[in-house]
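TA notes, week 10

Several of you asked for a full example with nothing omitted. So below is the full record: structure tokens for the whole chain, then the designed sequence directly under it. When grading your own attempts, check the secondary structure regions first.
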């Protein structure tokens, strides 16, 4: 698969067009190269210059402009795209697409492209429900056009009902989903993410700086590839990836119990969570008061070791593929190799948490894949979504019949 992927955003003339710079930014954050094509009406709702600035590419608007055609002609633009996203798509543009019109730049490109087309309709609820629009939707559906939304809610025209364009984040996810190979259909993927939290008393707790971003990106990629995904999440305020079943837990013990429940039906387990190794020996249910501190302003707490979830499940691995993450601040590879042997999983992803551009609480990660054979693969600094793709490419090879 090509990386970055080339996304053509086609914008038609609806009020939701004002959200398109946000879509472009989301697509670029996901690592894609983006170009925009606007209908004449679209440029009344969003400035072409804004889209040019956020996409980093010139914007196309006019089928017959010699300058624009000279830079990239409309057939070249149609061929350039790996995916065409039409957002917002008005009732009028849907009708034109259904009937093969090519009377302006946008319709000509949509007729000429061989790339998958993803349509995000946005219109008044009565227009959406009109039999003409329903018929167009059916025609486009049978031709393999993909749809996302529209959502129900308050519409710009004042009506309530279905017709809102899906949020930019949902559209970006839909594009990524369309691009992903459906190679995990039939697999049940269990992912753990985020830090655990170990209560000290009624108000205090010990946790760690894990944001959960890596595990959430892994769960999202598994879902895109067609797996059934359950995500066991510790402390994090990240939104649940679309289509993923989420189980929230607090302590390491709660995480272990949840993992054990889901483990039986899972075929791939990825333990990206930062599990606390120790918990306070006694969970005190009330708040410890300052006066209770044992002399000289010191508080002494006793800790006991938590179960090692990864080691426990690896001991009962069966046909499953189990991946661990090693968070290391020094001797990264040696530490990951030691943990791989100790815990008995199929692959250890070594994470250098001392780097400020990578690892904990950032959007990118530079990891090493450490294999039981002793082989070590170094990956360059990638968005966490990119690391997830690399990871599943390896897991799929591992699971392919030899
Ligand atoms: N892990 C686990 N249960 C624990 C501790 C860790 O399942 N009680 C898992 C993590 O989810 C991760 C892997 O083991 O996949 C390695 O975790 P890490 O925190 O890097 O290592 P530790 O085993 O905790 O060792 P250390 O603290 O000495 O680095």
């Amino acid at each position: 698969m090509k990386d970055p992927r080339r996304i053509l955003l086609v914008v038609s003339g609806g009020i939701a067009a004002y959200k398109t710079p946000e879509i472009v930014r989301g697509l670029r954050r996901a690592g894609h190269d983006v170009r925009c094509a606007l209908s004449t009406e679209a440029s009344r709702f969003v400035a072409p210059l804004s889209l040019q600035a956020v996409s980093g590419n010139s914007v196309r608007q006019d089928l017959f402009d010699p300058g624009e055609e000279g830079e990239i002609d409309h057939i070249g633009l149609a061929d350039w795209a790996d995916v065409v996203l039409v957002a917002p798509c008005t009732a009028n543009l849907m009708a034109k697409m259904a009937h093969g019109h090519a009377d302006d730049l946008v319709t000509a490109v949509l007729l000429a492209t061989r790339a998958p087309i993803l349509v995000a309709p946005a219109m008044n609820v009565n227009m959406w429900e009109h039999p003409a629009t329903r018929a167009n939707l059916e025609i486009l559906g049978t031709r393999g056009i993909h749809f996302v939304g529209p959502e129900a809610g308050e519409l710009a025209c004042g009506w309530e009902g279905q017709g809102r364009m899906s949020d930019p984040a949902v559209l970006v996810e839909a594009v990524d989903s369309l691009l992903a190979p459906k190679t995990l259909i039939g697999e049940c993927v269990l992912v753990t993410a985020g830090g655990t939290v170990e209560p000290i008393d009624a108000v205090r707790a010990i946790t760690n700086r894990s944001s959960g971003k890596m595990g959430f990106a892994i769960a999202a990629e598994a879902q895109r590839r067609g797996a059934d995904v359950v995500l066991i999440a510790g402390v994090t305020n990240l939104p649940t990836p679309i289509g993923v079943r989420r189980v929230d837990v607090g302590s390491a013990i709660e995480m272990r119990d949840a993992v054990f429940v889901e483990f039986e039906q899972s075929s791939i387990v990825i333990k990206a969570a930062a599990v606390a190794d120790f918990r306070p020996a006694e969970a005190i249910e009330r708040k410890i008061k300052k006066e209770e501190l044992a002399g000289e302003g010191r508080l002494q707490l006793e800790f006991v070791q938590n179960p090692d979830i990864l080691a426990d499940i690896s001991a009962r691995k069966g046909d499953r593929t189990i991946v661990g993450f090693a968070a290391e601040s020094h001797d990264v590879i040696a530490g990951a190799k030691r943990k791989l042997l100790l815990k008995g999983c199929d692959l250890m992803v070594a994470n250098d948490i001392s780097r400020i551009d990578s690892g904990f609480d950032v959007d990118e990660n530079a990891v090493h894949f450490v294999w039981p054979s002793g082989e070590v693969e170094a990956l360059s600094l990638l968005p966490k979504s990119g690391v997830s793709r690399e990871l599943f490419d390896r897991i799929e090879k591992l699971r392919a019949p030899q």
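The chain is about 35% helix and 20% strand. Use that as a sanity check on your answer.
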